[in-house]
Fold:
Amino acid sequence: MAELPSVHKKLIPWFQKHKRSLPWRKTKDPYRIWLSEIMLQQTQVKTVIPYYQRWLKHFPNLTSLAQAQLPKVLKLWEGLGYYRRARHMHEAAKIILEQYGGKFPADPESLHKLPGIGRYTQGAILSIAFDIPVPLVDGNVARVLSRLFAIPEPIDSREGEKRLWELAKKLVPKKNPGDFNQALMELGATVCLPNDPWCDRCPVSNFCSAFRQGDQEDYPKKIKKNESKKVRAVCGLVHSDGKLLITQRPSQGLWAGLWEFPTFRLTEKADSESTLDKKLHAWGLRVCDLQKKGSLKRSYTIHREDLEIYFCKLVSDKKKGRAVKLPARQLLYVAPTQPWDLGGPVPVSHRWVRRNELGRFAFPSAYAKIIREYL
Ligand code: SF4
Structure:
């Protein structure tokens, strides 16, 4: 077992000397620390940097975020994924402005009540911005601790998680808790890598149980995950009079409130072209000239989706002898809230927009890619 009091004495000086220069490391402003921690969840540092900088140009402080309109917030998040993070930040900013006069609360109970601020984010904000000795555990910290202490419990089990948080709590020092927490994360991100950790460069190798045993890569232990599920979908780029049809997803569920091109799940053997034709027809849209333009793969939750992309043209309704024109905000019936849910239709709004107007709407990253590559 590593000597608990000594780890920070090695780790903090190492961090202060070797830390990467990152924009959020130049500040103690809790708003900026919070923003960086939320953006970094499930997202790589190099992806986050331009988003972080652009966000701060538009919302330099908590008040500007709280007073912003949600579509603008989502637009600035476009491409980062996990859009619930942006919605929660927006809601939390409004609460902090209304209930705390715009001053970031500096205690775990108040932070815990804010949307999107879990135990990890609390630890990051309190220790980094306010120098309060509160622990944190993210994926990198879990890997480092599981190796340092050769933890036998899977880190994604309840027991493993409990053990990690207890250790992190015992390890965090009263002095420089923010640097200590960041040092653990930095060690995991740059030295104690998932495969092939650089133990010869590690400042705490003397304390590391897994290193002593020579089985570093056997840690962390994990519960075996279910295989991901393959699914198919078809997406129509329906155009009429130089405009494209876009639909808005419902306000709850996956990619809530974002925009997309009409998309339908396909059963395993369904023909994509005829399914698209039929589904659009069921909406009251008659299309012609269906042309397959390509396909792309995307992943969400446990699904790996193969998305086929078609161009098609809205045609005249023969009975009425004129083109189908939908009022700009008429309700349509579109894909279910969850793409894997083949249940009943859900009403959402739609628009007909020109190519150069698409930039005003926030799309999930797969559709942003379609816009870049096919339109
Ligand atoms: Fe990770 Fe190796 Fe350092 Fe142990 S000695 S914490 S396995 S880098």
Notes: The domain at 229-374 is CATH 3.90.79.10 (Nucleoside Triphosphate Pyrophosphohydrolase). Residues 317-347 have pLDDT under 50 and may be disordered.
